[in-house]
Write a structure and sequence with these properties.
Layout: E1 6-9, E2 12-15, H1 28-31, H2 46-54, H3 59-68, H4 74-84, H5 96-103, H6 109-118, H7 124-138, H8 150-157, H9 163-173, H10 178-192, H11 203-210, H12 216-225, H13 234-242, H14 255-261, H15 266-275, H16 281-295
Antiparallel strand pairs: 1-2
Helix pairs in contact: 3-4, 6-7, 9-10, 15-16
Length: 296
């Protein structure tokens, strides 16, 4: 099931659709479902069950089935039940497909956003972000490349050549903090010229590449040379490099987080932090006292 939502990407807006019933998922619970399903009009497979549950009059049966078999989180079940009792959707839509088709167009954003807000279909953060984009558009800002929905905007902004335009819109909408925006502008020309670690082309690719422990030092060097590391964090990077790029217990990258979360390793991690200039003596003492209190 897809809830009625307004999804804000860095580069665009999608006012998405809502459904009135459950779709089977790839979860362990869903895999136990056998067909045909008597409660759902004897539908014989996922596709026919979805067609059955797309009809508003079958909404309660489908939600009850999804709840009974743990096919959806409780919050999505609650949201879907809210939707079932709402009046006609934006533009008179009354199903997932019709509402998604109507709201998957930025020209209908005002109507769809109002409907979502009036029917409490968005959480506070979603609503806040959506209104920032709405205000930017009302103020004359244009979506990058003339895109009109999430997919178009994502496709446009995943092209490195379009990063500057997309960042301009993000700035106009005000949903990227100033510091992050500055870093993104430094990063843009490096992506265009293929100088990024592993020649990653967007944030997701770069994050995936740099989460690998074997690429940790490469990514740190890149971030440092490119001015992407805040001044206050440079001393920690230098200390880490002096330690040979390895942390307590010989850990690298994200391994260190897991290593130091283990109670048995906390003393070793504190000692390493002290020896490499991460913490002062008084900080170590205070943290050791805290650990002793927890152990009691």
């Amino acid at each position: 099931m897809k809830k009625f939502f307004i999804f804000i990407a860095v580069a665009g807006v999608l006012v998405g659709g809502f459904a009135y019933a459950a779709q089977s998922t790839d979860s362990a619970a869903a895999q136990k479902i056998t067909y045909p399903i008597e409660e759902l009009g004897n539908c014989s497979d996922k596709a026919s069950c979805f067609v059955y549950c797309e009809k508003p009059e079958n909404g309660n049966q489908c939600l009850n089935f999804a709840d009974k078999h743990d096919l959806l989180p409780d919050d999505e079940i609650d949201l879907a039940k809210k939707i079932l009792v709402t009046k006609d959707g934006p533009g008179g839509c009354n199903s997932q497909i019709s509402c998604q088709n109507y709201c998957n167009d930025v020209s209908h954003m005002d109507t769809c956003l109002l409907f979502a807000e009036e029917n409490d279909l968005m959480d506070e953060d979603e609503l806040k972000e959506a209104k920032k984009v709405q205000a930017a558009l009302q103020g004359g800002a244009k979506l990058p490349g003339g895109c009109r929905n999430k997919n178009e905007c994502q496709d446009y902004c995943e092209n490195p050549d379009n990063m500057d335009v997309c960042l301009d819109f993000a700035e106009a909408a005000g949903f990227i903090p100033k510091e992050e925006l500055e870093q993104a502008r430094k990063f843009a020309p490096l992506i265009k010229s293929g100088q990024t670690p592993g020649k990653c082309k967007n944030r997701n690719e770069c994050q995936a590449y740099c989460e690998s422990d074997q690429h940790f030092n490469e990514c740190i060097d890149f971030a440092e040379k490119s001015g992407l590391i805040p001044e206050e964090e440079r001393k920690y990077i230098e200390a880490f490099k002096k330690a040979g790029g390895k942390g307590p217990g010989g850990c690298v990258g994200r391994q260190c987080e897991a290593f130091c979360e283990e109670p048995a390793n906390q003393e070793a991690c504190l000692t390493w932090a002290k020896d490499n200039g991460f913490l002062k003596e008084e900080d170590i003492k205070r943290m050791q006292e805290g650990i002793q209190q927890i152990d009691k």
